[in-house]
Specification:
Chain A is an alpha+beta fold and 120 residues long. Chain A contains 4 helices and 4 strands. The two termini of chain A are 17 Å apart. Chain A binds a DNA duplex (30 and 30 nucleotides) through helix 2, helix 3, strand 3 and strand 4.
Amino acid sequence: MTDKETNTNSKFNVEGRVWINSENCSFTGQGKIELIEKIKELGSLRKAAAEMKMSYRQAWQNINKMNNLSEKPLVILNRGGKNGGIAIVTEEADNVIVAYNKLKTAFDIFIKQQSEILNL
Amino acid sequence: MTDKETNTNSKFNVEGRVWINSENCSFTGQGKIELIEKIKELGSLRKAAAEMKMSYRQAWQNINKMNNLSEKPLVILNRGGKNGGIAIVTEEADNVIVAYNKLKTAFDIFIKQQSEILNL
DNA sequence: CTGCGTTATGTTAATTTGTGAATAACGATA
DNA sequence: TATCGTTATTCACAAATTAACATAACGCAG
């Protein structure tokens, strides 16, 4: 491991983003995955949005978009009822979360490697 | 190579972007690299911007930003003179282009691989 | 049937971002 | 000195994205 091969003290570093597309339309990204995870944790779209400091409207649009792009819905939103309503995360969403997290893990490693070999 | 391992006919695919940062400030990305390459080809910032259908203002700002973030300027802009002015791409810029293109090549491969193993 | 908290949706305001026009500065050349 | 095409910079406007607010719809509980 020589200075010729690595570059950990450079002022430059590599960054990037990854996401999953469905027919040229953004399906998931970091934010949407986190949103679903929060919904699963809290059982409420409104509470999840609040905790992420995201507007309820935007959160709803994100979920709605994903539900429409996927054959099976990822989050089932029911209004009215016992506590005013409930948001249920489906098994399909779990699959998406697993797939995205695998991608994200591999990507983080990729970025780290590329940042180290960056020759600037 | 079975259907369990690959996923080339899925309606989903992986996409992403990478760039090089300098102290939390975007240094280069695809667009800026292309801009520098065009300048090198045409010897003119204005012509390069026009060819990329980018406003001259934006192009100038991009180059100016990169020049300031780098110790040595990437593009030297001289006004006046024989043909009204000239834009010179430095050796430093060549190094940046090489570094970025290496990164981009590796990233394209990464994305292709991840798209193939995507399990959705 | 009333109250409650959530989902659903529209409207408007605010902020950011990009565009285009206009013009000054510049320096070799003729 | 006048010309030329480029770089440099400002200003006003447009477009697009985002934020904020308001309010209707819903269905269970009491």
